[in-house]
Design brief:
Number of strands: 2
Order of helices and strands: HEHHHEHHHHH
Low-confidence stretches: none
Number of helices: 9
Strand order of the largest sheet: 1-2
Number of domains: 1
Strand content: under 5%
Distance between the termini: 48 Å
Helix content: 55-70%
Shape: globular
Radius of gyration: 17 Å
Amino acid sequence: MVPLSQKLLNLCNSDGSIALELKVLVDQLKEQGFGALILLLSMPSALPIPAAGYSTPFGIILALLGMQLIFGHEVPWYPKRWSTKKLSLSKKWITFACKMLRILEVFTRPDRCAYLRYVFNRCVIGINIFILSIIMALPIPLTNTLPAAIILLFGVGLLEKDGLFLCFAQVCSLMAISIYVFAAYWISVFGVEGLMKLFS
């Protein structure tokens, strides 16, 4: 089984960056399309490197991918006019991402706990990704990195078909969504200052 970091490197150009048209990318990924696209699109916001401008557009695209998972699509669908759109990630991003993926490889096992994939099926995963993507797309501080990181975990679990890792991603997702729902409720009742006082 090809390691996650190597799968990412296989998509790179000779200069170590990724700059592929969407059609070419999906054709190369084939049945791994959802997992890989979710991984690639969440990565810029999930990594602790400034990613200005990525979170909102990528969050919207991830929400669309989440909806496709909910409705049972086997391969990613996109409008034909998007075919020539390029997904670009610099060599710096790829180098950092590979280091992170090598850490995740220690905790993942291909096809582990396959029965859990029937519990955390594509519909359940899609619902989580859709909700987290909406949060990620909001132009509000502190709403980008955590949702993107959890979406990335779902992408890893899908790529590796690791039921146990998907279970871990689900737990993280429920915790994060609960935190954001609580924060939204507290702000609506007590305002932003009330939330700041709560943690002061």
